[in-house]
């Protein structure tokens, strides 16, 4: 199988001796057209990969910042079809586009249809925060058929057996949750992050599956700290917060671009 | 007490429903709860402690009352009420709560969190935590804290911290989201004391097993009283814990028809409803595959019911399975039908039921008309209506706008 754009981006970063910068934004935040512009600013600032969030009414894994962003996107009328349009625009920037979605909207849309339409839009894969491999039979088949990466999560509470099972089910990368908690900024990187990455590396030695770390990373210094041991650094709430705080879109775009630049410096300063 | 059938399978599935759609971070905790429950239910010491609490603290077995006057409004069918309203804290919820609180202690955890809608599960949880010396945090939608201010005071009186949830629709579903967020961050010392037969495996099974006693008692009581099994068993269904409570022991009895009465709100064919089996479609919600009120893109639709305890846009996965296989039937009851049954039971039997339970009573009236005077109908009267007096007084115009009699 040919490499997905996600796999290519992560391989390029690895060859350059740095971690990849992965930025998250809900599609449709603050509205569908503006979200494309925010993502363009994230890529201009240095994001290698964009996680396009599918805004969902019941985001169980998200803290208040991303909840608010997703609420805004839904209030702006964002649908799954808009998500594909945002993915298409993201892929056009040259960055790799993956979708981050709770499972129900995908199941409701139709798993095969979702996979096919995402691939058609230029998406590289899907991160599924509430889908574990044991429940992913239909998704595994559909993602294989459409050539999409499957990104499951591992957590500090994952047993060694589950780390092996989950990483074996992943392609593209495995999302390592840095801490036991929900999305949102933290003052420091949890000490559970390095331990989890080390444990995950032990079960991915043969496959070489990239390990990217998310949850609670929101400064260049934190990005640099995580980049020292991870293949990718995932930042979400920090981007959303800058749009929420900005008095208007243009100010927000400037803030997002310079935030991405800082983080891009961080992932090169491992 | 806990031998309720072969389902779910190893992964928590009831046919195509159930399972575990939860963040990886919680899988270890869910496994721990499952393993601890398997040990506890076979541990005579645990069972003895739980049985003693159910008897001496809760007041089990609960009575079976024949509602002779109310029967006249049910086509003459014999109506037998399983009086879970007489339990300590006023509903069936305490059965599950005591079992899980003891389980919390067995797991060496010191903190309990729970969600609540109407406040019944929150009050029961705060009660058990007071008794067992556990720290207690209750998540409740801000909207519900206003509607059920008295229950907020009760929980605080019992030493619980009540956290109003201000995100989303500010009702039960958002309280559950927030409780899961707390759990993932504090899982080392915290047990999420889930209040209904929904959520990721093993909660639907655990909660069912801890309520099994309700149907088990009722089955024996009906046999003793009328010399045969009932023709039908009726219960209201929101998440579905009181319905599983009374259904489970009867599932193997093929002659007994099982009826779940959902909250129809303004009508199951209107947008203002909570009838997720009647009006919803299969989806994944709060950790399980089940029937959900959702739009074409899988976004959860807001639910409506006059009863806060039934105001939930999904249902426990085993009910979805029982509906799918036809073993149980589910029908909607409108707010108006429920309130009429509420009024009737007050006037004819001197029992003020919870508005939730009034949905089962309204259902029994329909069943009685269909089945006729030879029928025996067992109704789970899941809770008492003290908490609903404000709502009912306003509904029936028993007070003026200042709340004066």
From TrEMBL, chain A:
It comes from the Bacteria. It catalyses: (1S,2R)-1-C-(indol-3-yl)glycerol 3-phosphate + L-serine = D-glyceraldehyde 3-phosphate + L-tryptophan + H2O. Pathway: Amino-acid biosynthesis; L-tryptophan biosynthesis; L-tryptophan from chorismate: step 5/5. It is an enzyme of class 4 (lyase). Its EC number is 4.2.1.20. The keyword Lyase applies. CDD domains: Tryptophan_synthase_alpha (cd04724). The active site is at 51 (proton acceptor), 62 (proton acceptor). InterPro entries: Aldolase_TIM, RibuloseP-bd_barrel, Trp_synthase_alpha_AS, Trp_synthase_suA. Gene3D superfamilies: Aldolase class I. Coiled coil: none annotated. Keywords: Amino-acid biosynthesis, Aromatic amino acid biosynthesis, Lyase, Tryptophan biosynthesis. PROSITE patterns: TRP_SYNTHASE_ALPHA. GO terms for molecular function: tryptophan synthase activity. Pfam families: Trp_syntA. HAMAP family: Trp_synth_alpha. The alpha subunit is responsible for the aldol cleavage of indoleglycerol phosphate to indole and glyceraldehyde 3-phosphate. Belongs to the TrpA family. Tetramer of two alpha and two beta chains. This is Tryptophan synthase alpha chain. It comes from Nocardiopsis tropica. The gene is trpA.
UniProtKB/TrEMBL annotation, chain B:
Residues 60-383 form the Tryptophan synthase beta chain-like PALP domain. Keywords: Amino-acid biosynthesis, Aromatic amino acid biosynthesis, Lyase, Pyridoxal phosphate, Tryptophan biosynthesis. One of its GO terms (molecular function) is tryptophan synthase activity. Its EC number is 4.2.1.20. CDD domains: Trp-synth_B. It is an enzyme of class 4 (lyase). Pathway: Amino-acid biosynthesis; L-tryptophan biosynthesis; L-tryptophan from chorismate: step 5/5. PANTHER family: TRYPTOPHAN SYNTHASE (PTHR48077:SF3), TRYPTOPHAN SYNTHASE-RELATED (PTHR48077). The beta subunit is responsible for the synthesis of L-tryptophan from indole and L-serine. This is Tryptophan synthase beta chain.
């Amino acid at each position: 199988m040919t490499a997905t754009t996600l796999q290519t981006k992560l391989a390029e970063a690895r060859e350059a001796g740095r971690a990849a910068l992965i930025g998250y934004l809900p599609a449709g935040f603050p509205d569908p057209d503006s979200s494309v512009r925010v993502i363009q600013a994230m890529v201009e600032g240095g994001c290698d990969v964009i996680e396009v969030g599918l805004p969902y009414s019941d985001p169980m894994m998200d803290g208040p910042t991303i909840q608010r962003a997703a609420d805004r996107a839904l209030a702006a009328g964002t649908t799954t079809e808009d998500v594909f349009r945002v993915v298409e625009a993201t892929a056009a920037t040259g960055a790799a586009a993956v979708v981050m979605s709770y499972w129900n909207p995908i199941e409701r849309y139709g798993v095969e249809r979702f996979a096919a339409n995402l691939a058609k839009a230029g998406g590289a894969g899907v991160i599924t925060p509430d889908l574990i491999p044991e429940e992913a039979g239909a998704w595994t088949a559909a993602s294989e058929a459409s050539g999409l990466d499957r990104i499951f999560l591992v957590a500090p509470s994952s047993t060694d057996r589950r780390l092996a099972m989950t990483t074996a089910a992943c392609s593209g990368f495995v999302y390592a949750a840095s801490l036991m908690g929900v999305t949102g900024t933290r003052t420091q990187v949890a000490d559970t992050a390095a331990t989890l990455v080390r444990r995950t590396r032990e079960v991915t030695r043969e496959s070489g599956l990239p390990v990217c770390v998310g949850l609670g990373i929101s400064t260049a210094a934190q990005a640099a700290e995580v980049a020292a041991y991870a293949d990718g650094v995932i930042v979400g709430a920090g981007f959303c917060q800058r749009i929420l705080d900005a008095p208007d879109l243009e100010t927000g775009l400037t803030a997002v671009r310079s935030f991405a630049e800082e983080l891009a410096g961080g992932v090169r300063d491992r | 007490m806990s031998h309720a059938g072969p389902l779910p399978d190893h992964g928590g599935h009831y046919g195509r429903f159930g399972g575990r759609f939860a963040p990886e971070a919680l899988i270890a905790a869910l496994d721990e709860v499952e393993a601890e429950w398997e040990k506890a239910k076979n541990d005579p010491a645990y069972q003895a402690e739980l049985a003693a609490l159910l008897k001496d603290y809760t007041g089990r077995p609960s009575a079976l009352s024949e509602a002779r006057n109310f029967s006249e409004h049910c086509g003459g069918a014999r109506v037998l009420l399983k009086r879970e309203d007489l339990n300590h804290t006023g509903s069936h919820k305490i059965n599950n709560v005591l079992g899980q609180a003891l389980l919390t202690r067995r797991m060496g955890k010191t903190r309990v969190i729970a969600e609540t809608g109407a406040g019944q599960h929150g009050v029961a949880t705060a009660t058990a935590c007071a008794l067992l010396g556990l720290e207690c945090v209750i998540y409740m939608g801000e909207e519900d804290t206003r509607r059920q201010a008295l229950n907020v005071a009760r929980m605080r009186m019992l030493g619980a911290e009540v956290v109003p949830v201000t995100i989303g629709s500010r009702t039960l579903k958002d309280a559950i989201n927030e409780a899961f967020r707390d759990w993932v961050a504090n899982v080392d010392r915290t047990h999420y004391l889930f209040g209904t037969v929904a959520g990721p495996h093993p909660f639907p099974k655990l909660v069912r097993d801890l309520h099994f006693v309700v149907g088990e008692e009722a089955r024996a009581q009906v046999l003793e009283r009328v010399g045969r099994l009932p023709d039908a068993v009726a219960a209201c269904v929101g998440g579905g814990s009181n319905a599983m409570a009374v259904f489970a022991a009867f599932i193997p009895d093929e002659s007994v028809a099982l009826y779940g009465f959902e909250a129809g709100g303004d009508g199951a064919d209107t947008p203002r409803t909570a009838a997720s089996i009647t009006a919803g479609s299969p989806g994944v919600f709060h950790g399980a595959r089940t029937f959900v009120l959702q739009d074409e893109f899988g976004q959860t639709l807001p639910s409506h019911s006059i009863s806060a305890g039934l105001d939930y846009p999904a249902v426990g996965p085993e009910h979805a399975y029982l509906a799918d296989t036809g073993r149980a039937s589910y029908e909607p009851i409108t707010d108006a039908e429920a309130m009429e049954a509420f009024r009737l039971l007050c006037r004819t039997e001197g029992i003020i039921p919870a508005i939730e339970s009034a949905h089962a009573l309204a259902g029994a009236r329909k069943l009685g008309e269909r089945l006729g005077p030879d029928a025996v109908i067992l109704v789970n009267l899941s809770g008492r209506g003290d908490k609903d007096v404000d709502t009912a007084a306003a509904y029936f115009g028993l007070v003026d706008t200042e709340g004066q009699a």
